[in-house]
Amino acid sequence: MGWTGALWLDYRNEPLRGAPRSVVQDRHDGPLRVLASLYPEAPGVCHNVLVHPPGGLVGGDSLTIDVSVGKAAHALVTTPGATRFYRSTGAAATQTLRATLEPGARLEWLPLETIAYSGCIARNALRFELAAGAEMIGWDVLALGLPASDQPFARGCFTQAIEFPGRWLERGVVDGADTRLLDSPLGWAGQRVLGTLWFAAGTALPAARRDALLATARSAAEGHALHRSAGATATHDAIVVLRVLAPRVEPLMGLLMAVWAGWREAAWQLPACAPRVWRT
Fold first, then answer.
1. Whole-angstrom Cα distance, residue 61 to residue 231?
2. Would you say 174 and 144 are in contact if contact means Cβ atoms under 8 Å apart?
3. What's the pLDDT score for residue 14?
4. Which alpha helices (DSSP H) does the chain contain, by range?
5. What pLDDT does 1 receive?
6. Alpha-carbon distance 152 to 260, whole Å?
7. For a Cys-Cys bond, which of 69, 170, 210, 219 suits 105, CB 3.0-4.6 Å?
8. In sequence order, what E strands does the chain have?
């Protein structure tokens, strides 16, 4: 039997001396914790860092994260380092996120990259339910193997699902032996890092606002070294997506952070406030 961990985060908007303040109530079971709430930009935006002390998942491990963001609350959630799925002897390792946003809520789901080691059997599922008036920015970064350390993703499989019920459902399986997928120009094109960044709303975005988000993403990508392997589109009238392929994590994360900063300003009139843990 593997490790089982669960974390429940409940964000609420509470007044503090007449001003709004986002606070979180958390519960955990097993090796999954949240660090102290931080307010580096304003009381209305609560920053949290999720910590998994074992440092990675092996076959049989299971992590479940439930996030609820109440009316008018704003949460930014990240991690201090990569999530690692190690080689399995047969059982699957799973991580599941379920997030629910009430009217007027905002969520920034910004974990650092996920690394799939060769031989892993991994499942990563993300589900977001947004009420009318709720909005979020999120990303997912998948790195296959450790090519720089001569440890390519040669076997095993990684199953991924990103879901906004009724709006966007993406499911895929990356098999280490599927060279046609990994090396074809219609697939990963020989790259080994895939990044997906999205802006999503609970109701349709006005065309002008949607176009502004697309323009922000495309402008950032055009001036970046990865411009040939990046593309932005509106998969739904309430969702804008940027997809990027790269040989390494660092340049891809740099582009995602630039677009995240631009979207924050364009959509919410908030300057970028990068979590300190990204710089340590």
1. 34
2. yes
3. 92
4. 179-183, 207-222, 249-268
5. 67
6. 29
7. 69
8. 4-16, 19-29, 33-34, 46-51, 62-69, 74-78, 83-85, 93-101, 106-110, 114-116, 121-130, 135-144, 157-164, 168-175, 193-201, 230-236, 239-246
Residues 6+ apart with CB under 8 A from 72: 13, 20, 104, 105
Q: Which amino acid is at 240?
A: V
Helix (H, G, I), strand (E, B) or coil at 82: coil
Which of the residues in the chain have pLDDT under 70? 1
CA trace torsion 68, 74, 79, 82 (10° rounding): 80
d(CA 65, CA 128): 12
Question: Both tokens of residue 126?
Answer: 């993300």
pLDDT at 19: 80
Distance CA 183, CA 181 (A): 6
The DSSP-derived string for 219-259 is: HHHHTSTTGGGEEEEEEETTEEEEEEEESSHHHHHHHHHHH
Tell me, what's the pLDDT at 113? Answer: 97
**What is the Cα–Cα distance from 115 to 193, expressed in whole angstroms?**
9
Q: Closest by alpha carbon to 47, among 78, 82, 19?
A: 78
Tokens of 116: 């799939």
* Residues 210-247 pLDDT 10s: 999 999 999 999 989 999 999 999 989 999 999 999 99
Residue with tokens 């479940």: 64
Q: Kindly report the pTM of this predicted structure.
A: 0.96
Pairwise CA distance, residues 259 & 231, whole Å? 12
Check if the beta carbon of residue 82 is closer than 8 Å to that of residue 47: no
